[in-house]
Specification:
Elements lengths: L1 H24 L4 H23 L5 H27 L2 H22 L6 H19 L10 H23 L7 H20 L11 H24 L2 H8 L3 H12 L5 H18 L2
């Protein structure tokens, strides 16, 4: 139950972070947004380091660095995806990919589910599909480029979560701190190389920083959840974060929610209840 609650908290934080990051990327080049978001995330993790501790073993350093590279790619691909829009279609597509890969890794590593979990897991994946499936008459159809970016973002997010899960359970904040330091460095190097293509527009500083802070908290909650529960369950619950993004997009941007998406939200609630019994 603790792992489930932590995963739900991670899901909510990811959903809010993605919404803010996507909005920020509409105001300036995506790298300008990430240049603010990534250091803001690192600042949060450095503040939490003395409280939660960290053990910088070689394994923690290696897996943390790998997660950082994946995180940098995820930041850029995801925010670019959400900037193109529509958020209420592309975000769930990304989530489906980000859920399926960690679930497969967890099952290959020998994780087993009870009867409730065997029912809840496919329901949760179906919920993500339903939320992303239909778009009504008033909804925009995503372009092929946007869909490819969404798939790439999902794969990058999945790799980041898998790498974090592989880090030693006694490493504390170490993989998060190393990962965010690496992702910030990769982002700054990429921005330096592409500085002539970034344009004159300034990023939405507050919005981008808030996205980075929320993303950092989401990573921490995921790491704690994965250390206290199965990756298969934690990953699929975390991947329900588009529910938050979709609802925020509906409230703030007036993006239409299709009836199938509402069914998906209800299916997600049933799936979470079943997985809570696992």
């Amino acid at each position: 139950m603790i792992a489930l609650l932590l995963a739900l908290g991670s899901s909510l934080a990811y959903g809010c972070a993605d919404f803010l990051g996507g909005l920020g990327a509409r105001k300036a080049h995506v790298l300008r947004t990430v240049m603010v978001a990534a250091p803001a995330s690192l600042a949060v993790e450095l503040l939490l380091w003395p409280v939660l501790g960290a053990s910088f073993s070689p394994a923690a350093l290696g897996w943390g660095a790998a997660s950082g590279v994946a995180s940098a790619a995820a930041f850029a691909l995801l925010y670019k995806t959400l900037a193109i829009g529509p958020m209420n279609v592309l975000s769930p597509v990304t989530a489906l990919v980000s859920a399926a890969l960690p679930v497969g890794v967890g099952l290959m590593q020998g994780e087993r589910l009870g009867m409730a979990g065997l029912l809840g897991l496919p329901l949760a994946l179906a919920a993500v599909v339903l939320v992303s499936a239909g778009h009504g008459a008033g909804s925009a159809r995503p372009s092929r480029t946007a869909l490819l970016l969404a798939l790439g973002a999902g794969a990058a997010i999945a790799l980041q979560l898998i790498f974090l899960h592989q880090a030693p359970s006694d490493s504390g904040m170490a993989p998060l701190v190393i990962g965010r330091a690496v992702s910030s460095a990769v982002t700054l190097v990429a921005a330096g190389i592409m500085h002539r293509r970034l344009g004159p527009e300034k990023p939405a500083y507050a919005m981008s920083a808030a996205a980075g802070v929320l993303d950092s908290l989401a990573n921490l909650l995921f790491l704690l959840a994965a250390r206290s529960g199965d990756l298969t369950v934690v990953a699929v619950i975390t991947a329900l974060y588009p529910a938050g993004t979709v609802l925020l997009a509906r409230k703030v941007l007036a993006e239409r929610i299709h009836r199938g998406q509402l069914v998906g939200l209800g299916t997600a609630a049933v799936a979470v209840s079943l997985l809570a019994l696992t």
